[in-house]
Amino acid sequence: MIPAQIQKWLKSDNFPQRVLLSGGNIGKEIALEIAAQLQKTTPEKIKKGIYSDVLFFPDTGKSFKIDWSDAAKKDEQSEYENVRGLIRWSHQKPNEGTYRIVILENIERLSRESPHALLKLIEEPPLKTIFLFTTRNHHQLLETVLSRVTIVRLPTQDKDFEVSEDIKNFFEGKSLIPKFQKIDELDKASKDNKDKKIDRRVFLSFLEDLIRYIRLFRKYQEHMGILFETHQAIGQNINPRLCLERLAVKITG
C-alpha cells in the first residue's frame, strides 16, 4: 500500500517533515501506516487516539478552524483540532515515541484564514515534528502551501470510473430543474444522521465524481476552474447547497 518513494524514506531514517499525500481514496490509510511505522506502534492505536504522540484529525465534514472558537466547540472539535492548538501541541516534546506526528485528512477543508495561519508552522516545523496531510487534489490548494510540502501523488481509480446518469445530466442537461432536484436529493442525504447536521462529504463526493467525469472529455475542461472553486468553498464551511446551485447555473448558462 505504501508507495515505493515513501518506503525509501522510512528505511533511510530521513523522513521529510512535511508530506502531502495527493489523490486516490487511500491517503488516510497510508498516513496512518506511515505514522505507525515511524512511532513503532499500530494504526489502530492511532485511530483510537490512545497514542499520545500522534494527533489524527479525520475529515468529519466540518472545516478546520484557526482556534478553539465557539464554532469549533459547536462542531465538537477538540482543543487541538485547530491551527493554534496544533501549533501548541507540535512544540511539545514527544512522550513515548520518537516524533510528534500530525495527520490532517483533506487539508482542503481548512477555513479560509487557516492556511495563512498554518504557513509559519509548516515552513519552520519543530525538530521532532512531522506533518502528514492528505488531499483529494492538490491543485486546489494555495501555492504558498504547496511550496512548503513534499507532494506524493497516490494512484487513482479513474480508469474504472463508471459515469452515472446524474453526473452526465449535470453537465449535458439544458435545464436547471433536474440539476436542482439532484442538489435537493444531496441536501436531504447530507442530513440523514441522528443530529440532522449537514455532512459535507455527501456534496464533496458528488463534486469529485463531476471532476473525474470532465477529465474524460476535453470539451468540458473549461469548467475545471469553477469545479475546484466550488470544492474549496464547500470544504470551507460555505453553504454546500448554495455552492452547487451556483455551479449548476454557471455550467448551464
- Give the C-alpha Rg: 19 Å
Counting DSSP H or I runs of 4 or more residues, the number of helices is 12
Number of folding domains?
A: 2
State the name of the first-level CATH class of the largest domain: Alpha Beta
Q: Tell me the CATH architecture of the largest domain.
A: 3-Layer(aba) Sandwich
Number of strands: 5
The shape, in one word, is globular
The average pLDDT is 88
Structural class: alpha/beta
Main β-sheet, spatial strand arrangement: 2-3-4-1-5
The proportion of strand residues reads: 5-15%
State the CATH topology of the largest domain.
Rossmann fold
Contiguous uncertain segments of 5+ residues: none
Order of helices and strands: HEHHEHHEHEHEHHHHH
Helical residues, percent: 40-55%
The CATH homology group name of the largest domain: P-loop containing nucleotide triphosphate hydrolases
The biggest sheet, with number of strands, parallel, antiparallel or mixed sense and barrel status, is: 5 strands, parallel
Report the end-to-end length measured between terminal Cα atoms: 43 Å
Task: Describe the SSE topology.
Blueprint lengths: L3 H9 L5 E5 L4 H13 L3 H6 L5 E4 L12 H5 L8 H8 L9 E5 L9 H10 L5 E7 L7 H4 L3 E4 L11 H8 L3 H15 L9 H15 L9 H12 L4 H13 L1
Parallel strand pairs: 1-4, 1-5, 2-3, 3-4
Helix pairs in contact: 8-10, 9-10, 9-12, 10-11, 11-12
What report would you give on this structure?
The chain has 12 helices and 5 strands. β3 (100-104), α6 and β4 form a beta-alpha-beta unit. By secondary structure, the chain is of the alpha/beta class.
